Automatic annotation (TrEMBL):
One of its GO terms (cellular component) is Ino80 complex. The keyword Nucleus applies. Its main location: nucleus. The lineage of its organism: Eukaryota, Fungi, Dikarya, Ascomycota, Saccharomycotina. InterPro entries: INO80C/Ies6, Vps72/YL1_C. This is Ies6 protein. It is found in: Nucleus. It comes from the Eukaryota.
Amino acid sequence: MNNNNTRTNDERSEFLSGIAAMNVLEQPMRRAQIDILKEGGPAALAAALQRPKKKNNRRHKGARQILSDETKRINAILEQEQQKHEEDPAYVRRVPQVTTFNVSAPPSVRPVKHYCDITGLSGPYTSPTNNIRYHNSEIFQFIVKPMTPGVDQEYLKLRGANFVLK
């Protein structure tokens, strides 16, 4: 009986190795590759696998690229002015005045840091009554909670968060 089981196992392994030998793909195909194979045949699949698609992730130009583009633009203007001056000597050249320019950047993704209005340390807490930021419970208990309404507005004025009633 044991001999019979080994024979069926050997036959099964020979059968599976024969099927594996017929599979010429090195990697399993994706569903899109199977669709390309059905529509265009093996030549279309080979062409699709040879040209990988590259995604461009750049959103903004770098500072060096902006500077080089700006110098190219200025040099082109200067060259045009030089050609016009050579053609007509009475032509008055306009030399572009380059001072500084701003490089616009997107707003920061990081959250704004909050500081304690009393100590200047990090202020993760805000008083619900007067909107003063404080560092810990001791500062709240001994300084912020017993604070009079005029004094808290002075602290908020230092931060620029005060409100004036007219």
